[in-house]
């Protein structure tokens, strides 16, 4: 890793921690008496605080969206391709805020944090979170930062659901909503994939009802399987075929059930192994449930247009042709509802073979459309 960063990088960044002592009432009926959110910022807030952009992360995301934590860091933040000087989310223009959501496992208060009421790790006792809860906590962070209105709230996948919810919960506090590779609610198939992943964790003997940390173990097998299942759904058939095909890892077949013979098997096992070492099992359960529960139109009898009628933001929806987890049809549902509600909306469907993960990648057509929209935003 060079000590001189690329010209379009935000360079070295340091995470910050915000503490909140006012109780946060949650949709599940419980509340958090106090909590902390870890976040990063890139760029400079202008004198009128009109250039602030909020980045909402997806299921396994976190606050480190761009730049580097040290000169030795091998990879930059997870959305570095889109955040930085001259990039779609241009830090020469915007003040960018990226946080780790409540319930996360990267510094914000979550299941692996100490419960002040017991002095023990929360574990399974941490309350269930919803997209609405996250948006309310993000609004408090905005207050702390002196941001009364976001120039834009942006997110992909589960992050896109948060961006959409911002336009519903706080219509006066968001000027532009960018919802990428997302959906207004999960399909039955998506909920089914999440349930298979959760069952892998819940049935792991090392899960211990969610209190595995007290036992000094982690449900590694369950986490590995959950990640493997999830990762399959993030890639398209074409992308997986192009990347691995039926290539063998070994010179010959062993004709047994235990050998890692195909390259795709090796890849999935590596992904599962790496994930199980850095992600909390209870957080994975919490994040997938938040996905399942999200359905803003339910409050209006399933009428999404009515749900979005109070929104004041302009909208940009983007989807990818081979994304079968959050297909273009799901983005078009949101577009149709916004048009029915007479809102300003742009829609871009990008022809890309990478599947759902395409929203994380520097695809030229994607970056071009993303930049074109962001350049229109006045600050």
Automatic annotation (TrEMBL):
Q: Which Pfam families does UniProt cross-reference here? A: Abhydrolase_1 (PF00561)
Q: Which residues cross the membrane?
A: none
The answer to whether UniProt assigns keyword Calcium to this entry is no
Q: What is its main location?
A: cytoplasm
Q: Any idea of its EC number? A: 2.3.1.46
UniProt keyword terms in alphabetical order: Acyltransferase, Amino-acid biosynthesis, Cytoplasm, Methionine biosynthesis, Transferase
Q: Where is the AB hydrolase-1 domain?
A: 51-281
Q: Pathway involvement?
A: Amino-acid biosynthesis; L-methionine biosynthesis via de novo pathway; O-succinyl-L-homoserine from L-homoserine: step 1/1
Tell where it localizes.
Answer: Cytoplasm
The answer to keyword Amino-acid biosynthesis applying to this record is yes
Give the positions of the site Important for acyl-CoA specificity. 325
Enzyme superclass (EC)? transferase
Function text: Transfers a succinyl group from succinyl-CoA to L-homoserine, forming succinyl-L-homoserine.
Family to which the UniProt record says this protein belongs:
Belongs to the AB hydrolase superfamily. MetX family.
The record's note on quaternary structure and interaction partners says: Homodimer.
* HAMAP family assigned: MetX_acyltransf (MF_00296)
| This protein's name | Homoserine O-succinyltransferase
């Amino acid at each position: 890793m060079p000590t001189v960063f690329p010209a379009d990088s935000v360079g070295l960044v340091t995470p910050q921690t915000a503490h909140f002592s006012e109780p946060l009432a949650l949709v599940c009926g419980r509340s958090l008496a106090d909590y902390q959110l870890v976040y990063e910022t890139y760029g400079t807030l202008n004198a009128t605080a009109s250039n602030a952009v909020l980045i909402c992360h997806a299921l396994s995301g976190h606050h480190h969206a761009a730049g580097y934590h040290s000169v030795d860091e091998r990879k930059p933040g997870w959305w570095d391709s889109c955040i930085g000087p001259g990039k779609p989310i241009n830090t020469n223009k915007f003040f960018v805020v990226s946080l780790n959501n409540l319930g996360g496992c990267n510094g914000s208060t979550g299941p692996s944090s100490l419960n002040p009421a017991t002095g023990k790790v929360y574990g399974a006792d941490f309350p269930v979170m919803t997209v609405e809860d996250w948006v309310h906590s993000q609004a408090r962070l905005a207050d702390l930062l002196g941001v009364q209105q976001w120039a834009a709230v942006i997110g992909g996948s589960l992050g896109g659901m948060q961006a959409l919810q911002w336009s519903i919960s706080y219509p006066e506090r968001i000027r532009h909503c960018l919802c990428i590779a997302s959906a207004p609610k999960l399909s039955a198939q998506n909920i089914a994939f999440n349930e298979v992943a959760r069952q892998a964790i819940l049935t792991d003997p090392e899960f211990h009802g969610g209190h595995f940390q007290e036992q000094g173990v982690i449900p590694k097998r369950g986490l590995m399987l959950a990640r493997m299942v999830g990762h399959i759904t993030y890639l398209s058939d074409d992308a997986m075929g192009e990347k691995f095909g039926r290539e063998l890892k070994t010179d010959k077949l062993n004709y047994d059930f235990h050998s890692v013979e195909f390259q795709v098997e090796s890849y999935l096992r590596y992904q599962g192994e790496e994930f199980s070492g850095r992600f909390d099992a209870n957080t994975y359960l919490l994040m997938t449930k938040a996905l399942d529960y999200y359905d803003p139109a339910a409050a209006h009898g399933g009428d999404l247009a009515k749900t979005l009628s109070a929104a004041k933001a302009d909208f940009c929806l983007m989807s990818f042709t081979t994304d079968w987890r959050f297909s273009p049809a799901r983005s078009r549902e949101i577009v149709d509802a916004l048009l029915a509600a007479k809102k300003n909306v742009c829609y871009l469907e990008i022809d890309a073979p990478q599947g759902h993960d395409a929203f994380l990648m520097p695809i030229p057509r994607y970056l071009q459309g993303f930049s074109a929209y962001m350049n229109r935003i006045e600050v």
